Amino acid sequence: MSGRPEPFVAYGRAKTANVLFAVAFDKRHRDRGVRAAAVHPGGIQTELDRHMDPSQVRKSIEQMNQQLAAEGRAPIRLKPFLKGAATSVWTAVVAPADKIGGHYCENCHVGSIVPDDVPITAISEGVRGYALDPNSAEALWKKSEELVGESF
Question: What positions carry a catalytic annotation?
Answer without folding.
Answer: 11
